[in-house]
Automatic annotation (TrEMBL), chain A:
Lineage: Bacteria, Pseudomonadati, Pseudomonadota, Alphaproteobacteria, Sphingomonadales
InterPro entries: AB_hydrolase_1, AB_hydrolase_fold, HAT_MetX-like
Domain spans labelled AB hydrolase-1: 44-352
Record flagged with keyword Cytoplasm: yes
Pathways per UniProt: Amino-acid biosynthesis; L-methionine biosynthesis via de novo pathway; O-acetyl-L-homoserine from L-homoserine: step 1/1
Superkingdom field: Bacteria
Catalytic activity: L-homoserine + acetyl-CoA = O-acetyl-L-homoserine + CoA
GO molecular function: homoserine O-acetyltransferase activity
Species this chain originates from: Sphingomonas aracearum
Protein name as it appears in the record: Homoserine O-acetyltransferase
UniProtKB/TrEMBL annotation, chain B:
Source species, domain of life: Bacteria
Transmembrane annotation, as ranges: none
Species assigned in the record: Sphingomonas aracearum
Protein known as: Methionine biosynthesis protein MetW
Gene3D superfamilies: Vaccinia Virus protein VP39
Highest classification ranks of the organism: Bacteria, Pseudomonadati, Pseudomonadota, Alphaproteobacteria, Sphingomonadales
Length: 369, 195
């Protein structure tokens, strides 16, 4: 039994990892999981990249909430990414709070949590840390990198940063850069965290976390994950467990109650400083900027096949963002497939059961096997 | 699997190993045949998401998009052949689409239904209503064919734009018909063009 493989793995790599912001991280801790068996030639490895508030538990129960993995609809027996034939790797991103190096980790220089002394990261830094993990696992070239939302940004960054290390790239409900609107929503969330007196400039690890601020951040973000039609269908103007309006500021409406629940349950499983660092990394993401202002240049060295999927009601990363990537891939001569799928569920659609999405990803992956 | 007759003609005349863009590729029938039988590097553009999903499901590289809007995104001369099968008559601007086709591909195949075939003429002449035939089964209000083109119309447009015709094939159902009288006799036409 190789200790490197399996659920709930953790590795401390000596580093150093040189960061885009100029800093250096050492050691680099990575919490990850693997599913399935690595082929003797190492050719069946698929890396799953998680979204902003995701984690390494892609298809295993979350240790805090006990809920099933966040992408069991995509990863598992009989699913497009199947441990029966793939060796699946999913790691908590750098800056995260589920065991990988992040602001809650202990700074070896001080013996105390980094808090806001943790270096500001980029999506490319996250990807470089994942590459270090793959070196540790003995994986040279990935059969595919697959991700949705911020996971899709990592997948794109993989293709641009390590063009020789992946054969296929699946980017779902994502974008090649953060728009002004994307940055604006993240800034609202960060300001909510920082306005909470319990935040204490990030130094709350010995006291209480800024739960109220983080809950508000989550509530605001959660709205961006849903569509207006989806919200209307799910809640409308219906009242929460009452016959009439209270003429007060309780959660009269179901949608208020729902958002409050989303906010409160989020703080149990997520570190507020991690939320600041990861949203910052996403805001800094602009793949074209990293390649002389031309997105196509990011993909020119790549020999990977690409598959992009967007959802028609996703206004966080709308179809136009995926089309811009497709345009650049065409200009770079890369083999690319793209489809806009229809769903009432907005950005969240990529996490939900979608036979069409599964069919596209399954067909795309099998074509390279 | 047997290809649709106009697609079979195109498939016969695409050389092995070519780079091909199939505009309006449907579920990828022609692309799959070209890939499997001629090791062609085929890419597709298709409007209908269900067709795109089906094509990607067969391992083809297909992008969902609209010939009228998205061909402008493709670089000049990036394919050996650009194919427009049974799509010209559905475009909002067939002339612009044709220009893009011959900009993107060094050569272009265009196939379309001939609205001057005798069945269509008789149907309009004696019926007095927009023809609904085996080849053109839709009613006037729900047909995707918004630009009714004939063999002679197409020849005239191509000549006016200085486009060279390198090959032309005509079909009546499954059968090939001659070039002479094609405007009257052919139900479908396939042209090989070069700018």
């Amino acid at each position: 039994m190789d200790e490197r493989f399996g659920l709930a793995r953790h590795v401390r790599l000596p580093g150093p990892l040189r960061l885009d912001g100029g800093g250096v991280l050492a050691p680099v801790e990575i919490a990850y999981e693997t599913y399935g068996t690595l082929d003797s030639d190492g050719g069946n490895a698929v890396l799953i990249c998680h979204a902003l508030t995701g984690d390494q538990h892609v298809a295993s129960a979350h240790p805090v909430t006990g809920k099933a993995g966040w992408w069991t609809r995509m990863v598992g027996e009989g699913r497009p990414i199947d441990p029966a034939r793939h060796f699946v790797v999913c790691a908590n991103v750098l800056g995260g709070c589920m065991g990988s190096s992040g602001p809650a980790s202990v700074d070896p220089a001080t013996g105390r949590p980094y808090a806001m002394h943790f270096p500001v990261l980029t999506v490319r830094d996250m990807v470089r840390a994942q590459a270090m993990l793959l070196d540790h696992l003995g994986i040279g070239v990935l059969r595919a990198v697959v991700g949705g939302s911020m996971g899709g940004m990592q997948a794109l960054s993989w293709a641009a940063t390590f063009p020789d290390r992946l054969r296929a790239c699946v980017v779902i409900a994502s974008a090649a850069r953060h728009s002004a609107q994307n940055i604006a929503f993240h800034e609202v969330g960060r300001q909510a965290v920082m306005a909470d007196p319990k935040w204490q400039a990030g130094d709350y690890y010995d006291t209480e976390p800024p739960a109220a601020g983080l809950a508000v951040a989550r509530m605001a973000a959660h709205i961006t994950y849903l569509s207006e039609a989806g919200l209307t269908e799910k809640f409308g103007r219906r009242l929460q467990a009452r016959e009439a309006k209270s003429f007060g500021f309780d959660a009269d409406f179901q949608v208020e109650s729902y958002l409050r629940h989303q906010g409160i349950s989020f703080v149990d499983r997520f570190d507020a400083n991690s939320y600041l660092y990861i949203t910052r990394a996403m805001d800094y993401f602009d793949l074209a900027e990293e390649h002389g202002g031309r997105l196509a240049n990011a993909f020119r060295p790549s020999r990977a096949r690409f598959c992009l999927v967007s959802f028609d009601t996703d206004w966080l990363y709308p179809t136009a963002e995926s089309r811009a990537i497709v345009h650049a891939l065409n200009a770079a001569g890369a083999p690319v497939s793209f489809v806009e799928l229809s769903s009432p569920f907005g950005h969240d659609a990529f996490l939900l059961e979608s036979p069409e999405l599964n069919r596209v990803v399954d067909g795309f992956l099998r074509a390279g096997e | 699997m047997k290809l649709r007759p106009d697609l079979a003609i195109i498939a016969d005349h695409v050389p092995a190993g070519a780079r091909v863009l199939d505009v309006g590729c449907g579920d990828g029938e022609l692309m799959a045949a070209l890939r499997d039988e001629k090791q062609v590097d085929a890419r597709g553009l298709e409007l209908d998401p269900a067709n795109v999903a089906a094509a990607v499901g067969r391992g083809l590289s297909v992008v969902q998009g609209d010939a009228d809007r998205d061909l402008a995104d493709y670089p000049d001369q990036s394919f050996d052949y650009a194919i427009l099968s049974q799509t010209l008559q559905t475009a909002r601007r067939p002339d612009v689409v044709l220009d893009h086709l011959l900009r993107i591909g060094r050569r272009g195949f265009v196939s379309f239904p001939n609205f001057a075939q005798w069945r269509v003429r008789l149907s309009l002449l004696f019926g007095g209503r927009m023809p609904v035939t085996r080849q053109l089964p839709e009613q006037w209000y729900d047909t995707p064919n918004i630009h009714h083109v004939t063999v002679d119309d197409f020849r005239a447009m191509v000549a006016a734009r200085g486009i060279a015709v390198e090959g032309a094939w005509f079909l009546s159902g499954e059968r090939r018909t001659g070039s002479a009288g094609a405007n009257l006799l052919a139900a479908h036409a396939v042209f090989l063009l070069r700018r």
